[in-house]
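User: I'm putting together a small comparison set for a docking exercise, and I want a reference complex before I start. The sequence is below, and the ligand is phosphoric acid mono(formamide)ester. Could you produce the 3D structure with the ligand included, as structure tokens?
Assistant: Of course. I'll restate your input first, then give the structure tokens for the complex.
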Amino acid sequence: QRHLISAADLTRDDAIQILDTAEEMARVADRPIKKLPTLRGRTVVNLFFEDSTRTRISFEAAEKRLSADVINFSAKGSSVSKGESLKDTAQTLEAMGVDAVVIRHGASGAPYRLANSGWIDAAVINAGDGTHQHPTQALLDAFTMRRRLVGRDAGLGQDLAGKRITIVGDILHGRVARSNVDLLHTLGAEVTLVAPPTLLPVGIESWPCEISYDLDATLPKSDAVMMLRVQRERMNAAFFPTEREYSRRYGLDGDRMARMPEHAIVMHPGPMVRGMEITAEVADSDRCTAIEQVANGVSTRMAVLYLLLGGAVFDAKNAPAATH
Ligand code: CP
């Protein structure tokens, strides 16, 4: 593939190849020199029209670890505020010689448009578009689940068949939920979504997952529980649930976490709103993988960039280190 727009576009083999390559990339992070010369001479632009901490910084770290030249673009402070279009912005950047564009945009479909309009030749990677998709988040989440629930070495070449994953919270506005459902289904996991009816999208019945309104009943049957933030910024204030009522029914606290099987993990893509969907006690517990997910995001994004920009099967043991 030339682009990564949606988790739904990945076959099981594609996904496993990315996860296995990410494990090889993670081995590089264990070496004294963490940098590879692989993308020397290639240029990647990070084109962010929406705020980000984890995705933007981890893509930049991944690009630098692969020795790419990195251009960071943020809509704030750019000529976008003067009315410049996505097309003109992208073509302006491409005129500077860009091999790949990592784009986050508030409009669902913006990365697809960029990849398929003929405006630019560069590979396009979706870093989150509106309420639509966030495929590298789903990949790093699957990487984290496979490592924790199957094993770092035992997981190589494996999918997540039979693993029971519960995703809790704002499914309506959440591109993370949609991307995870797509990828987890492809990888053979059984997914249950738990949310208030007002935070489920129209057409949810056609998604390849179960729906529940009862978090307490679902927790004991989960291998991983992924808590999602309620996306206040995409919501009419009149429909925003109060923190108290939401956390009472759908928040994860220590008592609820105790209902999970001993081996089960708590996940969160971040940013977390402590006291709303997750208590500080849970967020800071050993069972919560939120920080591990961020670290895994660098290896996963290295794998995506490497494979999209033409890399062959990657072997960390024999890969040379970058000299500068
Ligand atoms: N998980 C995630 O996409 O976080 P950021 O919005 O900080 O990139």
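The chain has a mean pLDDT of 93. The first strand starts at residue 43 and ends at 48.
User: Thanks, that's exactly what I needed.
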